[in-house]
């Protein structure tokens, strides 16, 4: 089965990961996000009872 032979594609995969880790990732990390997550206070709300029509 030629799909299981890693010879032709292993070097390509390794080169792709090295390009991503050494070139692309350091260029993407310094970008700042425009919307920083904020801590919201969780206020418990009292649920209103459901009025069943048949009761």
Brief write-up:
It contains 1 helix and no strands. The protein has 55 residues and is mostly helical.
Describe this structure in words.
This protein has 55 residues and is an all-alpha fold. Helix content is 40%, strand content 0%. The protein is built from 1 helix and no strands. The longest helix is centred in the first third of the chain and has 22 residues, at 7-28. The radius of gyration is 27 Å and the shape is elongated. It starts with 6 loop residues before the first helix and ends in a 27-residue tail after the last helix. 0% of the residues are buried. The model has no long low-confidence stretch (mean pLDDT 81).
Q: What descriptive keywords fit this protein?
A:
55 residues; single chain; mainly alpha
Q: Secondary-structure element sequence?
A: H
Amino- and carboxy-terminal Cα gap? 69 Å
Shape: elongated
Question: What structural class should be given to the helix and strand makeup?
Answer: mainly alpha
The helix content is 40-55%
Regions with little confidence, pLDDT below 50 for 5+ residues: none
How many separate helices?
A: 1
What amount of the residues lies in strands?
Answer: under 5%
Number of strands: 0
What's the main sheet like?
none
Describe the oligomeric state of these chains in a short phrase: single chain
- The whole-number mean of residue pLDDT values reads 81
Rg (CA only): 27 Å
